[in-house]
Design a protein that fits this description.
Length: 101
C-alpha cells in the first residue's frame, strides 16, 4: 500500500460503529425521515452548536463525551454515513453540515 492509499483508507475508517449505529437510529434517522416525508427534501442541514438540549444530552450518553450532532457528523460519522451512501458536505467554519441522499 502506497502513502496515498494509506491516507485514503484512514479517511474511510469507521470507529465506534456500535455507538454510531445508536446515534444514527435514535437521533439522525428520525430527522432524515422528517426532512424527506414532511418537508419533501433530499437534504438535511444541521447547525446545532448547543449542548443544552435533550438531543445533546442523549448524544453525550451514547458517545461518552460532549459533542454536538454537527461536529459528530463532520468528524466521527462522516465515513460511517458515506459508507451508507450519503453525501456529506461541510460548510466551514462550523456554519453547518448537510447530508444528501
Amino acid at each position: 500500500m502506497n502513502d496515498i492509499e494509506k491516507l485514503r483508507s484512514l479517511t474511510k475508517e469507521v470507529k465506534d460503529r456500535e455507538k454510531l449505529d445508536t446515534v444514527y437510529d435514535e437521533i439522525l434517522m428520525p430527522k432524515l425521515i422528517n426532512a424527506a416525508s414532511v418537508h419533501k427534501k433530499k437534504e438535511l442541514q444541521i447547525t446545532d452548536n448547543c449542548y443544552d438540549n435533550p438531543m445533546g444530552f442523549r448524544i453525550e450518553q451514547i458517545m461518552g463525551r460532549k459533542v454536538t450532532l454537527q461536529t459528530l457528523i463532520e468528524k466521527d460519522m462522516k465515513p460511517y454515513l458515506e459508507e451508507k451512501g450519503y453525501t456529506i458536505g461541510i460548510c466551514s467554519p462550523s456554519y453547518f453540515v448537510f447530508i444528501r441522499w
